[in-house]
Amino acid sequence: MKIRERIIIKGIVQGVGFRPFIHKLVKNYNLSGWVLNSNQGVEIEIEGEEEELNSFVADVREKLPPLARIEEIEVNQIPLVGYKEFSIKKSEIKEEDSFVLVSPDISICKDCLQELFNPQNKRFRYPFINCTNCGPRFTIIKDIPYDREKTTMSVFKMCPQCLSEYDNLEDRRYHAQPNACADCGPEVFLYQQKRKSVNVDPVAEVIRLLKDGQIGAIKGLGGFHLACDATNSKAVLRLRHLKNRETKPFALMSINIEKINQYCEIGKEEKEWLEDRARPIVLLKKKKDGLISSFVAPNNDYLGVMLPYTPLHYLLLKDNFLALVMTSGNFSDEPIIGDNQEALEKLDKIADFFLLYNREIFNRCDDSIVKIINNDNVFFRRARGYVPYPITLDFKLKEVLALGGELKNTISFSKGNYVFTSQYLGDLKNIETLNSFKESIDNLGKIFKTNPQIIACDLHPDYLSTKYAEEMRAKKGIKIVRIQHHYAHIVSCMAENNINDKVIGVAYDGTGYGDDGNIWGGEFLLCDLKKYSRLGHLKYYALPGGDKAVVQPWRMTYSYLYSIYGKRAREFKIDFNQRQDYNKLLIIEKMINRRINSPLTSSCGRLFDAVSSLIGVRDEVSYEGQAAMEMESICASEIEERYGFDIYKKNGEFIIGPDKIFKEIISDLKKGMNKEIIASKFHNTVADFTVNLCGKIRENTNLSKVALSGGVFQNRYLTERIISLLKRDGFQVYIQRKVPPNDGGISLGQAVVAGYR
Ligand SMILES: [Zn+2]
Ligand SMILES: [Zn+2]
Fold first, then answer.
1. What is the pLDDT, as a whole number, of residue 97?
2. DSSP state of 246
3. Which ligand is nearest to the CA of 17?
4. For 18-22, 499-503, 536-540, 694-698, which range has the lowest pLDDT when averaged over its residues?
5. What is the mean pLDDT of residues 13-28?
6. pTM for this structure?
7. Is the bond leading into 388 cis (omega within 30 degrees of zero)?
8. 104, 290, 465, 489: least buried by Cβ within 10 Å?
9. How far, in Å, CA of 433 to CA of 333, rounded?
10. pLDDT (0 to 100) of residue 453
11. Alpha helix (H) ranges present in 168-249?
């Protein structure tokens, strides 16, 4: 039977070749009607036999163009009118209330790559080749609707040939907004000693300089990279000194999987993520005896590696280099640099040369980082390639701007049943990051066409984001909703898993301001989207020196030991005591006794720090989480032993007491047991007490859904063990795959709590 349907498709459907795709698809059927772009997305009216229509709609879902992404298809049957043919109608977009999703930046596609290296092609070796299916998007967009005038491509006027491709429905560059060629588009140039190098082929010269061991600042898609040959230890070490980055790993880029395979182990999932067209950095286990310099990631058995994603990367890497170091062009804790002039000024002391181009980066965006845990991805950093994809919920929210936490900050906007979480913005501790935070609020507010009257922020009174919220309240009368850090973590996990009933939330991280003014971080919460209560936590210990104890884990070790044993702790014949300055231990005792700058903490991150230092892995860190990460990397999976622990009730809350853990570790240390075994036993114990307490909570609440969140769940050994033990005990376990479990996910949780109320 013949029918007519009106189909509305929402999602990323404009500027991605969707209408030509529909037009071509219709030719496989005997259908008639039209398609157009509207404020809602793409609208189709179509007539034909019911069966044909059904399989047409199924095809639309399955055979999507590469950059398109469907969030919703609405199909309604309407009376027949008798269309004779199928056509593309003119867009019906009213600019003022237009809101459509835009695509993230996508790596160069196969077709363009083939043209890039084809001497017969007009774009042979052109570093900015792109098409409807690939290239820059989010990083060049200033406003929507997404067309060239509202991107940083607007200053380049298309030549007649590019324009004819752009206008031709049959062309694979139809409506490709960044379309360009060497005659009309952006170009690269080389700067050395503050001067533009003329009469050289910039790309060939850069390859020569890198091979020569020099360090370059290379403009990428979302910002600058600092690059050098990853097999050249002298160059890598020099980069470390100049960047003032002692041990934090550098990311690498290699031309293909075969090359990466020479120095890293690549599992099935890792390969899929490396090849994902978003091209994240994937954390891979190092192979022994690889040729990569050991200074790339000292004391770490993982390397962060990515495949090239821009044509320029391919030009640099093809037939050259096993791998290049490609680390963000910034100073520690500051945002990635995206502007040519700023790069020339700020990176001058680090870079021997600059490979620049004259297209502006509007939205700065770092590389994303993922690690495979439990056979699936976990984001360590979510940025380029994924932003601005929304998190889609089953329910609608009020419009909210959520400001996130302090470290690894992101912001989120809620709109309808979407939450847009920004790219990783960095640690909100300095003026540069604060400026980029404010800039992102403006830019993203524009792109998402939203101007919320509610701001969600953390409970912490001193966070710069909290202060910003208060400014906004004073200036614009905006309402503030303050949300506890670990509750936001758990809701973030609930939101991406579309849970809106009650869960047991386990939030393990470094630092978060608690309702009682203490520093939380080892929390068992009973949560729904409206409220939470604290059911249990790790026992409180003093954090001697506050933030100082975060960079000096030995302080935390001694806090535990002193609290458990008193002053005889400093007389133990263990390596830990030998390494410490005796007088400093006395000072720590004083600080704890007199409560001088020694807030109480239930942080799980600090427990890991303390054990890491106690067993001689790391006493001081140069980046957050380092002590725990290095301890994780020495764990041996064949160890099944564990330590004792206590769980007891105090004031109606469960307390996990780790005294036995420390006592048994000290006894193992005295026996001379090696730290690999102790580290494994410790991890096993944390998994045990976590599952044990979930069990007790289930007895009281009858809940068997457990949501895990917090930076500690980036620990693969621990997370896989907890998941498998919880599942064995019949729990349903939820973890985070869409936003990071670390503080990068906080703003999503905040937006959902504030928007749901
Ligand atoms: Zn392409
Ligand atoms: Zn052109």
1. 63
2. S
3. 1
4. 18-22
5. 89
6. 0.96
7. yes
8. 290
9. 8
10. 93
11. 202-211, 233-243
Nearest to 584 by CA among 607, 559, 615: 559
Extract the tokens encoding 21: 């795709």
Please tell me the number of the ligand nearest to residue 116's CA: 1
Of the listed ligands, the closest to the CA of 310 is 1
* DSSP-based three-state secondary structure for 79: coil
Instruction: Compute the distance from residue 48 Cα to the ligand 2 centre, in Å.
Output: 41
Q: Could you tell me what percentage of the chain is helix, strand and coil, using 3-state DSSP and rounding each to the nearest 5?
A: 35, 25, 40
Q: Got the DSSP string for 388-456?
A: TPEEEEEEEE--EEE---STTB--EEEEEEEEEEPPP-B-TTSHHHHHHHHHHHHHHHHHTT---SEEE
* Smallest-distance ligand from the CA of 66: 1
Residues 31, 53: Cα–Cα separation, whole Å:
8
DSSP 570: G
Ligand lying closest to the C-alpha of residue 130: 1
134 C-alpha to ligand 1 centroid (Å): 4
Cα-based distances in Å from 206 to 123, 200, 215, 618, 711: 20, 10, 10, 38, 38
Q: What is the mean pLDDT of residues 672-680?
A: 96
pLDDT tens figures, 195-252: 999 999 999 999 999 999 999 999 999 999 999 999 999 999 999 999 999 899 999 9
Ligand 1 centroid vs 122 CA: distance in angstroms? 14
Distance 256 CA to ligand 1 centre (A): 18
Ligand nearest to the CA of 165: 2
Distance 186 CA to ligand 2 centre (A): 10
pLDDT digits (tens, 9 = 90+) for 85-132: 999 888 777 766 667 788 999 999 999 999 999 999 999 999 999 999
Distance 187 CA to ligand 2 centre (A): 12
Q: 208 CA distance to ligand 2 centroid (A)?
A: 29
305 touches 252 (CB < 8 A): yes
Ligand nearest to the CA of 179: 2
Ligand that lies nearest to the alpha carbon of residue 161, given by its number in the listed order: 2
pLDDT score of 580 more than 90: yes
Q: Kindly tell me the sign of the dihedral angle through the C-alpha atoms of 242, 246, 251, 255.
A: positive
Ligand 2 center to 162 CA (angstroms): 4
Task: Tell how strand 251-253 and strand 302-306 pair up.
Answer: parallel
Q: Who wins on pLDDT, 67 or 120?
A: 120
CA 159–ligand 2 middle distance (angstroms): 4
Ligand 1 centroid to 172 CA: how many Å?
Answer: 8
Distance between Cα 89 and ligand 2 center (Å): 27
Q: How far is the CA of 515 from the centre of ligand 1 (A)?
A: 51
Partners of 538 in beta bridges? 656
103 DSSP 8-state letter:
P
For residue 6, give both structure tokens. Answer: 């009106």
Please, are residues 218 and 355 in contact by the beta-carbon 8 Å criterion?
yes
Distance 36 CA to ligand 2 centre (A): 27
Query: How many whole angstroms separate alpha carbon 80 and alpha carbon 373?
Result: 52
What is the residue type of 697? I
Cα–Cα distance list, 601 to 80, 417, 461, 534 (Å): 68, 36, 17, 15
CA of 23 to the centre of ligand 1 (A): 20
